[in-house]
Amino acid sequence: MYSFKNDYSEGAHKRILDAMIKSNMEQTDGYGTDDYCLKAAEYIKNKMDYNDADVHFLVGGTQTNLTAISSFLKPYEAAIAVSTGHINTHETGAIEATGHKVISAADTYDGKLQACHIEKVLAEHTDEHMVKPKLVYISNPTEIGTIYSKSELKSLSDCCRKHNLFLYLDGARLASALCADGNDIALSDYPRLCDAFYIGGTKCGALMGEALVICNNSLKEDFRYNIKNKGALFAKGRLLGIQFLELFKDNLYFELGDFSNKMAKKLKDGITKAGYKFMIDSDTNQIFPIFPNDIVKKISNNYNYTLWKKEDENNSVLRLVTSWATDETEVENFIEFLNNL
Amino acid sequence: MYSFKNDYSEGAHKRILDAMIKSNMEQTDGYGTDDYCLKAAEYIKNKMDYNDADVHFLVGGTQTNLTAISSFLKPYEAAIAVSTGHINTHETGAIEATGHKVISAADTYDGKLQACHIEKVLAEHTDEHMVKPKLVYISNPTEIGTIYSKSELKSLSDCCRKHNLFLYLDGARLASALCADGNDIALSDYPRLCDAFYIGGTKCGALMGEALVICNNSLKEDFRYNIKNKGALFAKGRLLGIQFLELFKDNLYFELGDFSNKMAKKLKDGITKAGYKFMIDSDTNQIFPIFPNDIVKKISNNYNYTLWKKEDENNSVLRLVTSWATDETEVENFIEFLNNL
Amino acid sequence: MYSFKNDYSEGAHKRILDAMIKSNMEQTDGYGTDDYCLKAAEYIKNKMDYNDADVHFLVGGTQTNLTAISSFLKPYEAAIAVSTGHINTHETGAIEATGHKVISAADTYDGKLQACHIEKVLAEHTDEHMVKPKLVYISNPTEIGTIYSKSELKSLSDCCRKHNLFLYLDGARLASALCADGNDIALSDYPRLCDAFYIGGTKCGALMGEALVICNNSLKEDFRYNIKNKGALFAKGRLLGIQFLELFKDNLYFELGDFSNKMAKKLKDGITKAGYKFMIDSDTNQIFPIFPNDIVKKISNNYNYTLWKKEDENNSVLRLVTSWATDETEVENFIEFLNNL
Amino acid sequence: MYSFKNDYSEGAHKRILDAMIKSNMEQTDGYGTDDYCLKAAEYIKNKMDYNDADVHFLVGGTQTNLTAISSFLKPYEAAIAVSTGHINTHETGAIEATGHKVISAADTYDGKLQACHIEKVLAEHTDEHMVKPKLVYISNPTEIGTIYSKSELKSLSDCCRKHNLFLYLDGARLASALCADGNDIALSDYPRLCDAFYIGGTKCGALMGEALVICNNSLKEDFRYNIKNKGALFAKGRLLGIQFLELFKDNLYFELGDFSNKMAKKLKDGITKAGYKFMIDSDTNQIFPIFPNDIVKKISNNYNYTLWKKEDENNSVLRLVTSWATDETEVENFIEFLNNL
């Protein structure tokens, strides 16, 4: 059975694997202090056209979120997120485990946070009997595949600066956002609009790894202590450096994002032509078609996917995910399969 | 410059790398629920001749220690360790970050904990104004390369059972302990004597990965929730499964441990013949020769190593570490280099 | 200016103060191990007609909530509350500071949680990528003065037992709930329906103090360690014992609850007669009248109160609170004042 | 049986109790924002001749320590203390429960920390694989009744400033230290030499309460949020204000400290004359006589005390504590009792 279940079903892109194989017997220092990591950080800063940032490589997304957020906040400070935000729902309380409340600011149709949601939270949190909202968490793409426009991100960034909040962006699938149709946020915009954000590797072609970019100077000090304190300082750190070096030494990261989006687009077009609708319009590598339950049953016999939610008595929303590794023939097969039902 | 600095300077053993390459484009479920992980767990249980254990694969040692210990203890319970214990000194307060005190029970010459140290701690912690010691942390080999004998481990285990304490063993370099000259603890003894322990991969031939073995039934429930809660649930979990499967499907794990010990032995013999002494007698892959400072200076120009401590005004203790990847010619070169000084 | 702002504006009921004065120079053991505490616990158990409970005396409500909940839950487990629940909004993230998520289960008109809200949360939390809901938090009265009926509480209790959840009840104002018109939950029902709950002293006539009652045997062990671990073990613990002994050696606790309700009723009747409505119908010592803003302004010049929220452009909801200490003449004056506006 | 077990066996000094009785029916705002608290803070600042400090009133010592230290430190930072430091041994891991390691810096004969101990810890903690020592914890008097000289405290303070560490002083029994024979540290020295410290009330004549004084501006911001976050914001906060106001509006605090020391001196002199020695020479309200075990047995039948430790096979060290409430006749009786043995 072919799987459209997620974008971490396979290993790594061939070029990344080759780079790891090639360097395998080299001796390097541990914990991310090696030349590969240094060089990868330089490449990323060059691609961002932004030099005044610290880049740290961590293994996974939840790990990156909890290490960063717990480092940035004082004990009584809280993060703001939409109700569907990954840290709010799908990280098993990892942020709270470090002592911080995640404030669910809004239940939005498109999974996006707006400045007005932040303002509302601030208006409700006025004294020391409540947590102090201090960090705004968003992801791009969102949990449901939508993307922020540059003006939307700028508006959030302005709101944060006005209210002395940190803007933190989870870029687990940033490659897909960067290459989406309609995207107008360049990689170089992120360090200018966010206080910190991470460039996802795990879901964008690497075996594992996320590149955390800290732009706000006040958040940089001693960050490696935080990484170790959370058990996230990776012994053979160069493995992360090698992968990000490969992704950013030319345009591989963007090519992989583009490819995954193209595969999703192809799926989306096929499904649309076959007469089905979607829960939400997404231009990234996650799409959410609505199928009648009997069709779902037949799909289940042939494909892996995620059942997102019940739309109504007779219909269900599925999540289908493509990636750098998606087999285009399988995409075509799926559409054909659907048309033959 | 050749490096004897640590056992995580290189990538992975060729067979492990090959297995990863071979499976690279296979689609599997994420987060360690794939067949590779299941099979690797089976292999490990078979090698231990012990079926009633849960095996979880995590990425790194500190991560494994903090996830396990924080899961096993109630908020007011503490871990007991020797002063040099890894959790006490070299994990940046990772255990304390989860809320638990590490009690430094003894400052021992050989880095080993004894039942009498535990008894002393228990005698000093008698009521609710002090933490309740509940878990005993040891590593084998210890931080300074020594190993426990079976009777020593049994004595600790008996003491723990008598006092209703958990015995947790950090096996970051377990391969080396298992294959050390003079070792009489079989892999099959560990699940019988410990409540939980981990079999290290990172320092024993894998790219990364530790196999946590939970033997005590009362510690098993919902453990995957704990892993995720600590940001340690690895998305492409199959990468850990593949590596441990390769290490345990035959005797590779033991062969690598044996090889690293042999290289250390060769170094040790050469250094001894050259007329130098050691801080401690170690049969594993870490050795601690004492050199005059002028010799150290010359070594520094040609080799990477860790300066362990000053022995006195004129002499220093170095830590030299070998591994599965150590180049035997380099070992011979080092000895020749030393003899030529 | 007379204050209807809260029920902790004054010190303690005269009988309580007298008991403290009388015992002032007696020597007792510290930390709640004295005879006053033991006897007070006995009186409470007698009044509950329930002997198999542990009673611990703590200083304040947030302290009691965080000590209890953090003790009852494993690291990845979460508490369920309504959105207005005290632990969710007015404890500055105290529960999260101990590592646990508070799940906001519902936004209810009457501030009450229902079994269906719990069921919905459980249905949404199905695997280790999400926290595990394990404890249900309610307060009686609720944050807006409403009370649960016995059948409502029984339904919650049944739901919790069915799903293996702990039911924890915050009784900061339990005296008022116990004596409310329409209340049909006896004190003896609480230990039978809850796993743990606390009987509030601070807001019910004592200088300070809350009596935590742990009924579920599995939650009792080593609880005093948790109290100390959270900095909540009170040195002169007998001060809490003396106060609860006085409250429960006869019916003082109930008399004070009854009096505070009567004062609220008198206020409510007067306000109603004066032609005003209420945000919610409350039979306890907190009432929420809606006044035009110009009336509010005049009240502000003469009385202290809490501005609860804006009802609309022209009207505001006020919170008026009465207590054991409320001066009946001042209640009458307020009504007269209102009628004269 | 008369008790020399501790200095919190009785209630409060009569003047304090009277002040509480007198104000009992006054209405004030909650949570320490009332005029009593404001005035008490002013009195304390006047007595310290130091205006640029924030004064917060908390209920107990462990609570104050954990709230302050967890507020002052970043997640990976640690506190330094002597092995016998209260936070290291007698607070049930309360500091670790907030995420921070307590580094046991030295095992000293007199219970005092020295700059050299701090320097040693700093020398051992050099990179991100270890916690970052950031706060020095001392108490005056120490756990065994000894006091720091001004030059000793100055030396610690200089060392902390040199290394950018916070100096935090636990003054649970500060009244006794301030009035000890040989003391040369004035109350006005504390805010000048420490970054924060607390003036103990619980053990110095109050029912409860500690006045935390924060002198370092960088530690002041939002501190009330921390207090609430730790469940330590006391509802009827004015009770703490009233007590400290009474203690500091004239010299009551010093008189009580002086009295408790005089009672200890009288005990010490009598015990010395009776031919017994002491574990340590203390000028404060805790003394540590060494008695033969048969004498201890007889004392046990007539007095409450703390068995501190076994001196040897035949002798034991007792801790005897006096206080503002000690009955001088009982002191005389004890000496007579001892002489009659």
From TrEMBL, chains A, B, C, D:
Belongs to the threonine aldolase family. InterPro entries: ArAA_b-elim_lyase/Thr_aldolase (IPR001597), PyrdxlP-dep_Trfase (IPR015424), PyrdxlP-dep_Trfase_major (IPR015421), PyrdxlP-dep_Trfase_small (IPR015422). GO terms for molecular function: lyase activity. Gene3D superfamilies: Aspartate Aminotransferase, domain 1, Type I PLP-dependent aspartate aminotransferase-like (Major domain). It comes from Inconstantimicrobium porci. Keywords: Pyridoxal phosphate. Its cofactor is pyridoxal 5'-phosphate. This is Low specificity L-threonine aldolase. One of its GO terms (biological process) is amino acid metabolic process. Residues 15-287 form the Aromatic amino acid beta-eliminating lyase/threonine aldolase domain. Pfam families: Beta_elim_lyase.
